Amino acid sequence: MIQLRKILLFFLSVVSLGLHAQNKYKNWPDIIRKNDAAWFGTAEAKTIAENVLLYQRNIGGWPKNIQMQKQLSESEKQQLIALKNDEHEVTTDNGATSQEMLFMSRMYAQVKDERYKESFLRGLNYLLEAQYANGGWPQFYPLKKGYYTHITYNDNSMVNILIILKEISEQTDYYSIKPSKEIVEKTKKAFDKGIDCILKTQYKQNGILTAWCAQHDEVTLAPANARAFELASLSGFESAKIVLLLMSIEKPSPEIITAVKSAQAWFEKTKITNLEEKRVLNDAGKIIDKKMIPTTNAAPIWARFMDLETNEPFFCDRDGIRKKSLDQIGSERRNGYSWYSDAPKEVLKKYPEWAIKNGVKVGSKDTPAKKNDKVVLTVAQDGSGDFTKIQDAVYASPAFPYEKVVINIKNGVYNEKVRIPEWNTNLTLIGESKENTIITFDDNFKKINLGRNSTFYTYTVLVEGDDFSASNLTIKNTSGDHGQGIALSVVANRAKISNCTILGNQDTLYLSGKETKQYFKDCYIEGTTDFIFGSATALFENCIINSIKSSYITAASTPVGIPFGFVFKDCKLTANPEATAVYLGRPWRIYAKTVYLNCDMGKQIKPEGWENWSKPDAEKNSYYAEYNCKGEGFQPAKRVSWSHQLTKKEAEKYTAENILKDTTPNWFSK
């Protein structure tokens, strides 16, 4: 019985492992890259491997666009065996050969079948043999007549090859199959020749290096045509992966550094931020139409085809006639081709960190990329800085940096939604002047129209990255008194806002997070209803809090058990003339905490001070208090009975050190 139970448990474990390692993907490239390592040891993977071996030609490469996982009949297998010596249609286009080599490497890591190793090495030998003497690669090898003989960066073909050679020449663990020292040395030389070809084919526009074309003539290295709708042009898509490859090289030569700097400048110059692609799908999820929609502050995109001299985007149908916009070409090419790309965004994101590492100056005026252990970027609308939009500077900032990232913003009205993502920690925005450096947008609840939570999408500036600071800025929601419209939304921890003006109407300032700490100093904050709201612990020191109309200043939602909520110290509460009846606060959630200390309260503050928002439980659980305030609006004897007037001893605990206590000591004073 015991022996039977062991056999049963073993059987169940094998079945469980098999289920866990099942292939979940339909497309051949996904099967290779997305499956767990364990799957490559399954019977299913071995069956597919037999197909991959059959499709490989004796020259070492594979044809393209084959779904290798498709079950083959006996007659189909015999046909493939008969084609082994056929060298037509063997290519590196559309990922062919490079992806099959990766498959064989992942198979060999699990199953030490020498056929897999031999297949990989024949593929590598194919890549080495296919290289031109000038370092480039054709699209097909042996050569196929026509544009296929051009050096091809199209669809990242040559970059894919160079990445393979780089991994092997550096003897990394990416590929499980380790070639001989002789072959490793060949890959080093081939890689260096390929990089040299890249440097020589970078296009000069009026004497200035820019980017690359999808194809270059294999003899002259000049830009070259491919299909009728693929005219010689600068490519926003293919150039991105070329630059990322150059940026991956340790200890780059001066020539590589110049190439990267020049390409980055060209990407900045040619990005499109006023268009957004809209795709219309049928019931089967297939694209039936593409439209480019004018959009304010759209995420940056680049055209795939740009004029060699003017950088102007253009589009072609199968007649080869250039058009200025996507809607001018027929639906077959419009919907069946990728005309725009956001691939260069990755270059701009990684560039500052790469520049620091390699001692490169950032900016057209040689502003240091790193100064006093800080990454420094400049935004200026007149083009004198590194960027003309604040969001673009954020996109270019390094993720989770060790040092402070400072974005200096020149005077101007920046009409854009700005998001500081969770990975952009340690970031600082510094305006040239509070009065004239203005970030503004006009979203509100009705305009967003995304359901009951639309408020949270209305921000002008959203801060998600911890250790954020901002100074000398105006942040404004200009939608007017038309419902909820956030100017500044802070959901980050250890956020410091100083000498800033924050303007809106209802819900101007949203501060959130169960244990987040936020600090506002010397700020002017204005709104109508609940214009300072949320769950964060926030200290306001020496701020002016202005009510536009009779309503409520705060709507805290402090979580239960949190010692402090919103605390106002040495602040001045002012109001427009029409605001004559203003509450200090009401509870968005019943454990709300709000305290005013040493504040000057104008006559607009209602004698009762606080309101329960029709929540009787809030009177028992919320904590509303004042200490040592002054002004016509400070009438402690008339306050609601469930609020508090602190004693001196009770007030002593409301220090910045206590309120903003965090794992980073005294972060707010730095």
Report the β-strand fraction as a percent range: 15-25%
Q: Give a short account of the largest sheet.
A: 12 strands, mixed
Strands of the widest sheet, in order across it, are 11-12-13-16-19-22-25-28-31-34-36-37
Give the overall shape.
elongated
Low-pLDDT stretches: 4-19, 364-369
Roughly how much helix do the residues carry, as a percent range? 25-40%
CATH class of the largest domain: Mainly Alpha
Cα(first) to Cα(last) distance is 71 Å
Radius of gyration: 31 Å
Total domain modules:
3
Named CATH topology of the largest domain = Glycosyltransferase
Query: What's the CATH architecture of the largest domain?
Result: Alpha/alpha barrel
Number of helices: 17
Work out the number of β strands: 37
Structure classification? alpha/beta
The overall pLDDT average reads 92
Give the key terms.
670 residues; alpha/beta; Glycosyltransferase; Pectate Lyase C-like; 3 domains; twelve-stranded mixed β-sheet; eight-stranded parallel β-sheet; 17 helices
Summarize, please.
The protein has three domains: 184 residues, Alpha/alpha barrel (Glycosyltransferase), CATH 1.50.10; 151 residues, Pectate Lyase C-like (3 Solenoid), CATH 2.160.20.10; 135 residues, 3 Solenoid (Pectate Lyase C-like). The chain contains 17 helices and 37 strands. It has 670 residues and is of the alpha/beta class.
